[in-house]
Design goal:
The protein has 289 residues and is mainly alpha-helical. The chain is built from 12 helices and 3 strands, in the order H-H-H-H-H-H-H-H-H-H-H-H-E-E-E.
Protein backbone atom coordinates (compact mmCIF):
# COMPACT_ATOMS: atom_id res chain seq x y z
CA UNK A 1 0.00 0.00 0.00
CA UNK A 2 1.49 3.45 -0.92
CA UNK A 3 2.73 5.43 2.05
CA UNK A 4 0.50 8.39 1.14
CA UNK A 5 -2.62 6.24 1.36
CA UNK A 6 -1.94 5.01 4.88
CA UNK A 7 -2.85 8.25 6.75
CA UNK A 8 -6.06 8.50 4.69
CA UNK A 9 -6.94 4.90 5.49
CA UNK A 10 -6.27 5.46 9.19
CA UNK A 11 -8.53 8.51 9.17
CA UNK A 12 -11.30 6.51 7.51
CA UNK A 13 -10.98 3.79 10.13
CA UNK A 14 -11.23 6.32 12.98
CA UNK A 15 -14.30 7.93 11.43
CA UNK A 16 -15.88 4.52 10.86
CA UNK A 17 -15.27 3.60 14.49
CA UNK A 18 -16.93 6.78 15.73
CA UNK A 19 -19.93 6.63 13.41
CA UNK A 20 -20.57 2.94 14.05
CA UNK A 21 -20.30 3.25 17.81
CA UNK A 22 -22.55 6.32 17.97
CA UNK A 23 -25.17 4.75 15.72
CA UNK A 24 -25.28 1.43 17.54
CA UNK A 25 -25.32 3.04 20.96
CA UNK A 26 -28.17 5.39 19.99
CA UNK A 27 -30.31 2.68 18.43
CA UNK A 28 -30.04 0.54 21.57
CA UNK A 29 -31.40 3.17 23.91
CA UNK A 30 -34.69 1.92 25.34
CA UNK A 31 -35.17 -0.68 22.63
CA UNK A 32 -35.08 -4.45 22.55
CA UNK A 33 -31.63 -5.59 21.59
CA UNK A 34 -30.68 -8.09 18.93
CA UNK A 35 -27.22 -9.09 17.80
CA UNK A 36 -26.84 -9.30 14.04
CA UNK A 37 -24.62 -12.10 12.79
CA UNK A 38 -21.71 -11.09 10.61
CA UNK A 39 -21.78 -12.22 6.96
CA UNK A 40 -20.19 -15.64 6.29
CA UNK A 41 -16.41 -15.65 6.67
CA UNK A 42 -15.69 -16.58 3.05
CA UNK A 43 -17.85 -13.70 1.81
CA UNK A 44 -15.97 -11.23 3.98
CA UNK A 45 -12.60 -12.64 2.94
CA UNK A 46 -13.54 -12.33 -0.73
CA UNK A 47 -14.88 -8.79 -0.37
CA UNK A 48 -12.34 -7.43 2.08
CA UNK A 49 -9.01 -8.12 0.46
CA UNK A 50 -6.55 -5.85 2.25
CA UNK A 51 -9.37 -4.55 4.45
CA UNK A 52 -9.85 -7.75 6.44
CA UNK A 53 -8.51 -5.98 9.53
CA UNK A 54 -11.08 -3.23 9.16
CA UNK A 55 -13.89 -5.75 8.66
CA UNK A 56 -12.81 -7.61 11.79
CA UNK A 57 -12.70 -4.43 13.85
CA UNK A 58 -16.13 -3.32 12.64
CA UNK A 59 -17.66 -6.65 13.70
CA UNK A 60 -15.86 -6.23 17.03
CA UNK A 61 -17.43 -2.77 17.51
CA UNK A 62 -20.91 -4.08 16.78
CA UNK A 63 -20.49 -7.05 19.12
CA UNK A 64 -18.92 -4.94 21.89
CA UNK A 65 -21.74 -2.39 21.84
CA UNK A 66 -24.27 -5.23 21.95
CA UNK A 67 -22.55 -6.81 24.94
CA UNK A 68 -22.35 -3.46 26.68
CA UNK A 69 -26.12 -3.05 26.48
CA UNK A 70 -27.07 -6.52 27.67
CA UNK A 71 -27.35 -5.76 31.38
CA UNK A 72 -29.25 -2.52 30.94
CA UNK A 73 -31.83 -4.15 28.68
CA UNK A 74 -32.13 -7.34 30.72
CA UNK A 75 -30.97 -9.62 27.91
CA UNK A 76 -28.98 -12.76 28.72
CA UNK A 77 -25.91 -13.85 26.81
CA UNK A 78 -27.15 -17.45 26.56
CA UNK A 79 -29.84 -16.34 24.10
CA UNK A 80 -27.16 -15.18 21.68
CA UNK A 81 -24.47 -17.85 21.97
CA UNK A 82 -24.85 -18.85 18.29
CA UNK A 83 -24.52 -15.28 17.01
CA UNK A 84 -21.67 -14.48 19.38
CA UNK A 85 -19.79 -17.62 18.40
CA UNK A 86 -20.17 -16.79 14.72
CA UNK A 87 -19.00 -13.21 15.20
CA UNK A 88 -16.00 -14.05 17.37
CA UNK A 89 -14.87 -16.85 15.07
CA UNK A 90 -15.32 -14.59 12.04
CA UNK A 91 -13.42 -11.60 13.41
CA UNK A 92 -10.53 -13.73 14.70
CA UNK A 93 -10.31 -15.68 11.44
CA UNK A 94 -10.23 -12.46 9.42
CA UNK A 95 -7.60 -10.86 11.65
CA UNK A 96 -6.00 -13.40 14.03
CA UNK A 97 -3.56 -10.81 15.43
CA UNK A 98 -6.45 -8.75 16.85
CA UNK A 99 -6.04 -9.56 20.56
CA UNK A 100 -9.15 -7.93 22.03
CA UNK A 101 -11.73 -10.49 20.75
CA UNK A 102 -10.00 -13.30 22.67
CA UNK A 103 -10.57 -11.49 25.96
CA UNK A 104 -14.25 -10.89 25.19
CA UNK A 105 -14.58 -14.52 24.12
CA UNK A 106 -13.29 -15.60 27.53
CA UNK A 107 -15.57 -13.19 29.37
CA UNK A 108 -18.82 -13.72 27.46
CA UNK A 109 -18.84 -16.62 24.99
CA UNK A 110 -17.00 -19.31 26.97
CA UNK A 111 -19.34 -19.28 30.02
CA UNK A 112 -22.52 -18.67 28.01
CA UNK A 113 -23.39 -22.30 27.23
CA UNK A 114 -21.92 -25.66 26.28
CA UNK A 115 -22.01 -24.64 22.63
CA UNK A 116 -20.43 -21.30 23.47
CA UNK A 117 -17.60 -23.02 25.35
CA UNK A 118 -16.96 -25.40 22.45
CA UNK A 119 -16.77 -22.51 20.00
CA UNK A 120 -14.63 -20.48 22.40
CA UNK A 121 -12.11 -23.33 22.42
CA UNK A 122 -11.77 -22.97 18.64
CA UNK A 123 -11.35 -19.20 18.98
CA UNK A 124 -8.59 -19.70 21.56
CA UNK A 125 -6.85 -22.10 19.18
CA UNK A 126 -6.80 -19.33 16.57
CA UNK A 127 -5.27 -16.95 19.10
CA UNK A 128 -2.66 -19.48 20.24
CA UNK A 129 -1.63 -20.02 16.63
CA UNK A 130 -1.24 -16.27 16.18
CA UNK A 131 0.46 -15.80 19.58
CA UNK A 132 2.13 -19.14 20.42
CA UNK A 133 3.92 -17.72 23.47
CA UNK A 134 0.99 -15.81 24.94
CA UNK A 135 0.38 -17.43 28.32
CA UNK A 136 -2.93 -15.63 28.92
CA UNK A 137 -4.55 -17.21 25.85
CA UNK A 138 -3.31 -20.64 26.92
CA UNK A 139 -4.73 -20.07 30.38
CA UNK A 140 -8.08 -19.12 28.81
CA UNK A 141 -8.09 -22.37 26.83
CA UNK A 142 -7.18 -24.61 29.78
CA UNK A 143 -9.66 -22.95 32.13
CA UNK A 144 -12.43 -23.18 29.54
CA UNK A 145 -11.78 -26.90 29.04
CA UNK A 146 -11.89 -27.56 32.76
CA UNK A 147 -14.61 -25.28 34.11
CA UNK A 148 -16.97 -24.82 31.16
CA UNK A 149 -16.52 -28.07 29.22
CA UNK A 150 -15.81 -30.32 32.22
CA UNK A 151 -12.87 -31.98 30.46
CA UNK A 152 -10.07 -32.23 33.04
CA UNK A 153 -7.90 -34.53 30.92
CA UNK A 154 -7.98 -32.16 27.95
CA UNK A 155 -7.33 -29.25 30.32
CA UNK A 156 -4.32 -31.11 31.72
CA UNK A 157 -3.00 -31.61 28.19
CA UNK A 158 -3.48 -27.91 27.36
CA UNK A 159 -1.58 -26.80 30.46
CA UNK A 160 1.12 -29.44 29.92
CA UNK A 161 1.75 -28.06 26.44
CA UNK A 162 1.84 -24.51 27.82
CA UNK A 163 4.33 -25.59 30.49
CA UNK A 164 6.81 -26.62 27.79
CA UNK A 165 7.10 -23.08 26.43
CA UNK A 166 10.24 -21.21 27.40
CA UNK A 167 9.78 -19.09 30.55
CA UNK A 168 6.35 -20.60 31.20
CA UNK A 169 5.05 -19.93 34.74
CA UNK A 170 5.33 -22.98 37.06
CA UNK A 171 1.59 -22.64 37.57
CA UNK A 172 0.96 -24.32 34.21
CA UNK A 173 2.82 -27.52 35.07
CA UNK A 174 1.15 -27.58 38.47
CA UNK A 175 -2.31 -27.19 36.95
CA UNK A 176 -1.49 -29.95 34.46
CA UNK A 177 -0.63 -32.26 37.36
CA UNK A 178 -3.75 -31.32 39.35
CA UNK A 179 -6.07 -31.84 36.38
CA UNK A 180 -4.35 -35.13 35.54
CA UNK A 181 -5.18 -36.31 39.06
CA UNK A 182 -8.74 -35.08 38.66
CA UNK A 183 -9.17 -37.14 35.48
CA UNK A 184 -7.67 -40.27 37.05
CA UNK A 185 -4.37 -40.04 35.13
CA UNK A 186 -2.43 -40.40 38.37
CA UNK A 187 0.91 -41.54 36.99
CA UNK A 188 1.10 -38.62 34.57
CA UNK A 189 0.33 -36.18 37.39
CA UNK A 190 2.91 -37.82 39.63
CA UNK A 191 5.65 -37.47 37.01
CA UNK A 192 4.88 -33.78 36.57
CA UNK A 193 4.95 -33.13 40.30
CA UNK A 194 8.21 -35.02 40.76
CA UNK A 195 9.81 -33.03 37.94
CA UNK A 196 8.66 -29.77 39.51
CA UNK A 197 9.85 -30.78 42.98
CA UNK A 198 13.29 -31.71 41.67
CA UNK A 199 13.68 -28.34 39.94
CA UNK A 200 12.21 -26.19 42.75
CA UNK A 201 14.63 -24.02 44.75
CA UNK A 202 12.17 -22.69 47.31
CA UNK A 203 12.01 -25.18 50.19
CA UNK A 204 8.47 -24.24 51.22
CA UNK A 205 7.16 -24.77 47.70
CA UNK A 206 9.12 -28.02 47.40
CA UNK A 207 7.53 -29.22 50.66
CA UNK A 208 4.06 -28.58 49.23
CA UNK A 209 4.94 -30.50 46.07
CA UNK A 210 6.24 -33.41 48.14
CA UNK A 211 2.99 -33.52 50.11
CA UNK A 212 1.06 -33.72 46.87
CA UNK A 213 3.45 -36.36 45.52
CA UNK A 214 2.69 -38.53 48.56
CA UNK A 215 -1.04 -38.17 47.90
CA UNK A 216 -0.55 -39.30 44.30
CA UNK A 217 1.54 -42.29 45.38
CA UNK A 218 -1.16 -43.39 47.83
CA UNK A 219 -3.86 -43.03 45.19
CA UNK A 220 -1.77 -45.04 42.70
CA UNK A 221 -1.42 -47.83 45.29
CA UNK A 222 -5.22 -47.95 45.57
CA UNK A 223 -5.58 -48.01 41.78
CA UNK A 224 -3.08 -50.87 41.55
CA UNK A 225 -5.14 -52.81 44.09
CA UNK A 226 -8.30 -52.16 42.04
CA UNK A 227 -6.56 -53.45 38.93
CA UNK A 228 -5.55 -56.67 40.72
CA UNK A 229 -9.08 -57.16 42.04
CA UNK A 230 -10.51 -56.59 38.56
CA UNK A 231 -8.08 -59.05 37.02
CA UNK A 232 -9.18 -61.78 39.45
CA UNK A 233 -12.93 -61.08 39.53
CA UNK A 234 -13.54 -59.73 36.04
CA UNK A 235 -15.20 -56.57 37.38
CA UNK A 236 -13.94 -53.74 39.58
CA UNK A 237 -14.99 -53.63 43.24
CA UNK A 238 -18.17 -51.76 44.04
CA UNK A 239 -16.60 -50.27 47.15
CA UNK A 240 -12.97 -49.68 48.04
CA UNK A 241 -13.32 -51.61 51.32
CA UNK A 242 -13.62 -54.77 49.26
CA UNK A 243 -9.89 -54.42 48.58
CA UNK A 244 -8.95 -54.78 52.27
CA UNK A 245 -6.95 -56.72 53.36
CA UNK A 246 -6.20 -59.02 50.41
CA UNK A 247 -5.23 -56.39 47.86
CA UNK A 248 -4.23 -53.51 50.11
CA UNK A 249 -3.70 -53.28 53.87
CA UNK A 250 -5.92 -50.26 54.32
CA UNK A 251 -7.53 -47.51 52.26
CA UNK A 252 -5.30 -44.49 52.83
CA UNK A 253 -6.73 -41.32 54.29
CA UNK A 254 -5.58 -38.50 52.05
CA UNK A 255 -5.25 -35.85 54.74
CA UNK A 256 -3.64 -33.02 52.81
CA UNK A 257 -4.36 -31.25 49.57
CA UNK A 258 -6.82 -33.75 48.05
CA UNK A 259 -9.90 -35.92 48.43
CA UNK A 260 -9.71 -39.51 47.15
CA UNK A 261 -12.70 -40.16 44.87
CA UNK A 262 -13.69 -43.59 43.54
CA UNK A 263 -15.77 -43.91 40.37
CA UNK A 264 -15.35 -47.50 39.19
CA UNK A 265 -13.00 -48.50 37.75
CA UNK A 266 -10.80 -45.49 38.57
CA UNK A 267 -9.77 -43.47 41.58
CA UNK A 268 -9.00 -39.79 41.17
CA UNK A 269 -7.77 -36.93 43.32
CA UNK A 270 -9.89 -33.82 43.69
CA UNK A 271 -9.32 -30.66 45.62
CA UNK A 272 -11.40 -30.50 48.83
CA UNK A 273 -14.14 -27.90 49.01
CA UNK A 274 -13.24 -25.57 51.84
CA UNK A 275 -15.95 -24.23 54.15
CA UNK A 276 -16.68 -20.48 54.14
CA UNK A 277 -14.63 -20.07 57.33
CA UNK A 278 -11.52 -20.99 55.34
CA UNK A 279 -10.54 -23.56 57.96
CA UNK A 280 -8.88 -26.67 56.48
CA UNK A 281 -11.47 -29.27 55.59
CA UNK A 282 -10.97 -32.82 56.80
CA UNK A 283 -10.38 -35.02 53.78
CA UNK A 284 -12.58 -38.00 53.15
CA UNK A 285 -12.90 -40.78 50.64
CA UNK A 286 -15.87 -40.46 48.30
CA UNK A 287 -17.11 -43.56 46.53
CA UNK A 288 -19.51 -43.31 43.61
CA UNK A 289 -20.26 -46.79 42.31
Amino acid sequence: MPAVARPTLLLLVIVAYGVSYAYLDRTMQGQSVKLQSAPPLKVLQTMSGYFEQISSEMIFIQTSVFLGGLKKLGTVVEDYDTELAHNFRTMTSLYPDFIDPYYLTNAFLAPASRYGAEQADLVFDTGITAYPKDFVLRFFKGANLFYNLQQPLQAADAFAKAAKIEDAPPMFAHLAAIFSGRSGELKAGLIMLQTMANAEKNELVKERYNEEIECFKQAIAVQNAIDLYTKEHGIPPKFLQQLVPKYINAIPTIEKRFVLVYKPPKVSLERPVLPPTRKPAKSTTIENP
